[in-house]
Design goal:
about 475 residues; mainly alpha; Transporter YisQ; YsiQ
Amino acid sequence: MQKREHNKFSLWMLAWPIFIELFLQFLLGAADTLQVSRISDDAVAVVGFSTQLFSALMTLFMTVAGGAGILIAQRIGSRNNEDARTIAIMSVKVSAVIGLGISVLLYAMPGQIASLLQLPDELMPLAKTYISIVGGGMVLVAVMSALSNAIRNTGNTKGPMYTAIGMNVIHVGMNYAFIFGKFGFPEWGLKGVAISTDISRLLAVIVLFMMFFGAFARQITFRDFFKLFDRTLFKEILKIGWPMGVNMSCWVFSQLLIFTYIARLGAVELSTRTYMNTLESFCFLLGYSLALALQIQIAHLYGAGKAEEAYRNSYRALWIGLGIVTVNALVLYLIGGHILKLFTKDPEIIAMGISLLGMNLLLQPGKMLNMGIGNALNAVGDTRYVMWTSITSMTLIASILSYIFGITLGWGLVGIYACMILDEYIRGIWVLQRWRKKKFLKPAQEKMAASSPNTGSSGGGTSVTLEV
């Protein structure tokens, strides 16, 4: 049993299914972008703009799901499976309620929301259709995120991966049928992409629920969702989760604000940024997978009182991640121009995108540093510090300086990207300094010493050693 748990929570066993899942999500986005580009560059701009809006609103339910995920891993590490089960059920229930509220808002007011965010008038008709349909299905995203997060933090990262495979295959196939009117379906265009998105997500939710019911030692039933609620545990979820939610909100709202700046520059710049989002996502996929896996592993170790091992593993994962994202960024810089030509024939968009790929060489290592060590701090409960670094840097640099350099000084996308790079490195340096102090690892050492007085922090014969 010790060997199985050793393997289950090793960094590689956690990371590779997450990578496959995220890679397939990237393919979903890339396929969306490629297929939508056959409609028009304006349609691409609407999808990119809407994605930033949806990401901003997702932080409302990811606050609960994120805090719950860390606590699930910690409780399993400390062999408290019943608490882990209760936390998971509560996270799904609360996320569903929040997601339903968001769905009603986006379905009822798509035009008003797009106007508030300064979307160009020529894009408004497409935006109303896309936001109302995909936004109306945000409850599915809320439930899917909570289920995936809970399952993943039990050490089962393969389940969400297999679900992502099925969801992507179905989505791409339906896109082809609904956009171009194949197999007897009407030619719906961008509306077809929106409908395809909601259907594929609904099917994913059904599959994830089937996995979720058997994810813990004691079977979960439908009755648990109506009866089970522990206020003390929920307060603990919020204590860890709300700073993570604020942190995520800072990022997505700064990105949404940046999209409004870019929208002021014009539809060409907005389309370019959307294409760049797709390329950058591919570049960072494996590094981000390592960062997520590291958070699960460190939370598990922290729950078991294995403080020093958690500290050492974070640096191994960081160096591996830095090497991977640097190589990926270099390869993307060399071939990115050819990839852009698959999406668009507009020479202005291609030229602008190639210049940003060069800046991406600087951006990606900073993102890896910030994400890797930031997730390590989150895993041990130091979420407030990560939150304050985000509030400070994203407000002053990502939001204010981006406007000054991009809009006021007229540097456009180049100026905005320069500020994004500076923001990542500033936050990365801050979280690294905090992690090196080991402040929030000391409680784990004391816990382990108290529970195993004869063996110190090694945890005795029942400890589980986790490796990269």
